[in-house]
Amino acid sequence: MNTQTLLPAAAPPGARPARPVESVEPAAEPTLSAAIPVAAPSSPRTPSPLSAKAGQWVQAAVPPLLGLALLVLAWAGISMATSGSIPGPAATFDQAVELFSDPFYRNGPNDQGVGWNVLASLERVAIGFGLAATVGIPAGFLIGRFRFLSKMFNPIISLLKPVSPLAWLPIGLLVFKGANPAAIWTIFICSIWPMVINTAIGVQRVPQDYMNVARVLNLSEWKIATKILLPSVLPYMLTGVRLAVGTAWLVIVAAEMLTGGVGIGFWVWDEWNNLNVMNIIIAIGVIGVVGLGLELLLVQIAKAFTYEEVKS
Length: 312
Fold this sequence. Notes:
This protein is mainly alpha-helical. It is built from twelve helices and no strands. The chain has helices at 32-35, 49-81, 89-100, 114-145, 147-160, 169-176, 179-204, 208-216, 221-259, 264-273, 277-305, 308-311.
């Protein structure tokens, strides 16, 4: 078989021979990085644990201090605007230093130091709150556990819960024939509702799977309450306790103003009768500090007895 070699066609006569085409690469442009040497990135500094803690403390302390400074400035402005009828921060601070230099003096039944008045109020709050917890927490467990009891007591709770605590004070005076038990009764009746409601809600929100397992294992009601309900309900119950303590501390001041005797509320009213506005402002500060202390104490207790996801 003959093979033919293909040759390029001959150029016409008189035409100039074609030049071979060469591939042209674009010239590289000079870059700034080629002219200037770039330093290698340095590794970031890791702060020491001490400096990290100091930074956290500063971030936690600066906002509250700024808020307190703003409050003091507003207080000073109001004092200047009222031409001194409301004492300023400096004069009140001097009076507080003198007052707290001897907080436990006793010159008679109606002339006692601020320390005795605070302790008397805390004693009434402790008794009334303790009675309310003794009744309210078990009642909340029963109301949340049994649907029949929930339907029976929900209307009563909804009817009595909105009543002002001070509206119960005359009933206490009529029944107990004394100012001190009447004040404790008022604390009891205003503290019981948050604990009943929050405990019942906590019981009702226990996952049904837990109860199904208890039914399969044929657990008694006591074991269901202690092994299943209590660990699940504890965050709700402690929230109710916190709300109840805050309400009790609010109510005792107003109740003592009406009943008299020894207590921080009576001390405020007595200073008003003496037109001693400085001591009234100091008493407001004492009431706030004691209430804040109770709140922080209960928060720490709640953190100790709740799960990690509840702490946040």
